[in-house]
Design brief:
flat, two-stranded antiparallel sheet, mainly alpha, two-stranded parallel sheet, 12 helices
Length: about 300
Amino acid sequence: MSLTIKGRPIHFSLKWLKPLPVPPDGTMTLFEHLRELRYRLIVSALAVIVGMMVAWFFRYDLMDILQRPYFQAIAALKAQHPGTETLLVNINLTSPLTLALKVSALAGVIVTAPFWLYQLWAFVVPGLLAKEKKWALIFIAAATPMFVGGVMVGYIVLPKGITVLLSFTQSGVSNLQDLNAYLSFLLRMMVVFGIAFLLPLVVLMLNIVGVIKAKQIAKYRRLVIFGTFVFGAVATPSTDPFSMLALALPMTLLFLGAEVIAYIMDRRKARRAALAGDDLLIRGSVADDKVLRELSEGSDDGLEPRR
């Protein structure tokens, strides 16, 4: 039995789930790009929804994991101040459902990350050259563990930050923490740490593609380190110095490591250019090139350059 609307039959098809064919040369019109983008977005959204549905059955376990830093902080705080009273609460009727949906959605996005990242890569890759594809893959391969590492550092240092913040509570005052507000605080903290760990990698990739040199990085090293600590103080939602140092110190070490690698890469580039005989590329000055210097001197004297 087929469905009809105003006498017109409706046909259900799953052909739209198949990826659109890409021409051998990779050239596509604007509308083809838009169709490709629509396809990638739809299948990515469906994958996230499926991941969210699966995570829904583990929502209580996930909540226990997310609440663990808070309870660790409370245990440390009560060891110092036994009379401290704290409690996680839901402050309105819809909070439990909203919280469960938020946690499930977050888990769905994380679990399906390889799939939707591949969709993003598949959309971008037809317009890249072979060398650009190589560096893009290297960047993705390095960025993933660094971002995850930053998230884990944020998760680990969070109990100390919570302990410091709640230690300012006056005696006789109870702390009632909204569970939704705590979850938002936790997510912001982990995302900030994850993104911060990617900044040295971005600097290194800019050096690899030739945008900045190792000498330029070394020239502004002090300013970058100072800016790193300022960023650590501003970016961390908590106001305790421990969280700032936990963010700024790894960023500084990663930046110094990126500077060392950039210096090694520049030396390799210089060595290759020397073997190729490109003296001007090595010295970086017209005055160091004999032919160009003679041409310049000839034009200044109003004479024809020597042949």
